[in-house]
Amino acid sequence: MSGVLALVREDLRDFAGYASARRAQLIGNVWLNANESPWSSPADSGLSLNRYPEPQPPALRARLAELYGVAEDRLMITRGSDEGIDLLVRAFCRAGRDGVLIAPPSFGMYAVCARVQGALLFEVPLRDGDRAWSLDVAAMLVLLAQQPVKLVFLCSPANPTGQALSIAEIRELATAMRGRAVLVIDEAYGEFSSVDSASSLLDEFDNLVVLRTLSKAYALAGARVGSVIAAPALIAVLRNIAAPYPVPAPSAALALAALAPEAVAIAGKRLRTSLVERDRVAAAIRSMPGVIRCYDSAGNYLLVRFSDADAIFARLLAAGVVVRDMRANPALADALRISIGSPEENDALINALGAEAMGKVA
Q1: Interval 282-334: pLDDT, tens
Q2: CATH of domain 3-15+52-259
Q3: Which is it for strands 324-325 and 291-294: parallel, antiparallel or unpaired?
Q4: CATH number of 262-361
Q5: pTM to 2 decimals?
Q6: 208-213 and 182-186 as β-strands: parallel, antiparallel, unpaired?
Q7: Which one, of 198, 228, 254, 221, lies nearest residue 339 by Cα?
Q8: Parallel, antiparallel, or unpaired for β 149-155 and 226-229?
Q9: How many DSSP H helices and E strands does the chain contain?
Q10: How far apart are CA 227 and CA 41, in angstroms?
């Protein structure tokens, strides 16, 4: 066996998974094969919630594939990006033998899923620059040559640090890892970045996986709709180890509505507003006393170091402004991550940090 399937856990390569009542895609008028209620709930709004949903709703899968510019057989719908991360770790890592490589500070779910699976965890820290963080590609390649790494998780734009990976960096890593490990690029914040999606490299590398989500730019965090984009053979493996019905019918309906042309146009307009607001908030914060560093960001958030982060966090809470406290991370002991909100919410943030700073920006 060659290609990416050779990296999958041997016991899962031919694993057929659970044959759910909907997986067979049978056609009929009287449904008596799934022990469901024959009556709709009084709370049902016409979605036939008494019936199990399609494991991969065809209309939504087709729309997501169109949105991301990939073939349908390369895409699997998941419960947000989190499920995709978990499935990948389970598919490739044998407990105590295979490893996951991350570049901290990074999104915490990569390490959490590795720990739950009993996978080894390896780290190559990001390099902290004056205005932006960067990936230590050379150090990653050295570690990959020395350790039993099966998966490398990188976020682009990175959460919480904000930098985006170049296509050249992704190609270099995917080339070095070919036949040895799988490179996963988490593009949860991809819509906010000017860098092209790593999905443009999927034809070149079958050991490349891209994660996407509707939680951020499309305002559906509560619906939990994500995508794994990968080689068709790998998508088949992941579907076989996933839960039988990962996409609730209401979530699928909401996602399709959110991806209608008029809704996409609204999302695009709001995204452009977020980018303008990100620059405005960053300029305001950089003008404030007590700010050590406000990093450049390709996402809808800013990572900021303060001389007294404890006092700033408390001041913001007192004003009703909740930001993400990053101080439990040793590399970010003086840092807070600030999401970019609406213009009015951002004004509240700036006012809480210091009204005099807002005057300087104006």
Answers
A1: 999 999 999 999 999 999 999 999 999 999 999 999 999 999 999 999 999 99
A2: 3.40.640.10
A3: unpaired
A4: 3.90.1150.10
A5: 0.94
A6: parallel
A7: 221
A8: unpaired
A9: 11, 13
A10: 30
